[in-house]
Write a structure and sequence with these properties.
Elements: E1 2-6, H1 12-19, H2 22-37, H3 42-56, E2 69-73, H4 97-104, H5 106-118, H6 121-143, H7 148-174, H8 178-202, H9 211-226
Antiparallel strand pairs: 1-2
Helix pairs in contact: 2-3, 4-7, 5-6, 5-7, 6-8, 7-8, 8-9
Length: 238
């Protein structure tokens, strides 16, 4: 469907544009030639001005041509398209917070899982229990992200601390420092209990009874790891 709208007024640029159009230029030129043949008589010029103005659309009612009007095509209404924000090629999409917390702890979790496959005795038992409970917490958090505040510390503190302790234990074993090895084994045993507590929390059970123990454990870890700087990235014995 077309809707026609006459231009509200005509400017000199518009007059000049019309005068240069072939279908108008020829008759205007003929009028001027006729006027010249008649000696540029002013009365003749005055009389010829009216048809020239008519040709240029400057007077009276005139025939409306498509080149003198605005034509607006009204198309069929289309369904609005939902714009999808584009993601830059080198920019990864933002992950949900709970997924980001889990991903940040993956390296530490991988180290603990690898150690649990090779360690023996009580140490191996504790590490395997910790892996099982950490996996429970991870699955529970993925299914219910609202539990993040209850278990976030497991991923941001306890998993990395355990991985650091395992590396420190490897150095102590290499140095035949049995006292240090026993101290670290005791810390890992307490971490095993902490991991079990987080597994209870993710399933809605009350874990407040061991909150004080966790605070004491964190203090012990903070003091212990100060004296256990992580050296090279070479594989340490467990």
């Amino acid at each position: 469907m077309r809707r026609y709208q006459v231009r509200p007024h005509t400017t000199w640029d518009e007059v000049w544009r019309r005068a240069k159009q072939p279908q108008r230029l020829l008759p205007i030129t003929m009028f001027f030639v006729l006027w010249a043949l008649l000696g540029f008589n002013p009365w003749v010029g005055f009389g010829l001005a009216f048809p020239v103005m008519g040709i240029l659309g400057l007077r009276g009612k005139r025939k409306i041509h498509e080149d003198d009007i605005l034509i607006e095509e009204l198309m069929e209404p289309q369904q609005p398209q939902t714009s999808i924000p584009e993601v830059a090629q080198n920019e990864a999409p933002m992950l949900p917070l709970h997924q980001q917390v889990i991903d940040d702890a993956k390296d530490a979790f991988t180290q603990i899982r690898a150690a649990s496959n090779t360690a023996s005795g009580d140490l191996g038992s504790h590490l395997r229990n910790m892996v099982i409970n950490a996996e429970k917490v991870e699955r529970g958090l993925l299914s219910d992200p609202s539990k993040l505040s209850q278990v976030q510390r497991l991923f941001t503190y306890y998993l990395p601390s355990c991985a650091d302790l395992l590396q420190a234990r490897g150095r102590a074993v290499s140095a035949n420092d049995n006292v240090r090895v026993n101290e670290i084994d005791g810390m890992i045993s307490r971490l095993d209990a902490a991991f079990a507590d987080f597994a209870l929390r993710i399933h809605g059970q009350d874990g407040r009874s061991v909150d004080i123990d966790l605070k004491l454990l964190e203090q012990s870890l903070a003091q212990d790891l100060v004296f256990s700087p992580i050296g090279s990235k070479s594989k340490d014995k467990v």
